[in-house]
Hints:
The chain is an all-alpha fold. It has one domain (2-103). 84% of the residues lie in helices and 0% in strands. It has 4 helices and no strands. It starts with a helix and ends with a helix. The model has no long low-confidence stretch (mean pLDDT 94).
Amino acid sequence: MAWVYLFIAGIAEIGWALGMKYTEGFTKPVPTILTLAVMAISVVFLALAVKQLPLGTAYAVWTGIGTLGTVLLGIWLFNEPSDLIRMSCIGLIIVGIVGLKVVS
Length: 104
């Protein structure tokens, strides 16, 4: 169950990272409230995951999922660059996440 909690925490991290873009520096009330709520969800599920998983592994996977999702959605939603070097780095993040899952 810990890995499920960690996955939910990672997805929520993507949500709050994207949400921050829409808060416009926390000046828009509705996006700000939603972003803060998703932040809380992310941290709660991370806390549940670290009850059973090693902290370093859980934190690295959590940030990896968040980074991966945020970068890919940034490319899709905001037309951020998607050159070969950037995509190769994303591939390395995926390898790291899978590697930590395999050894944990």
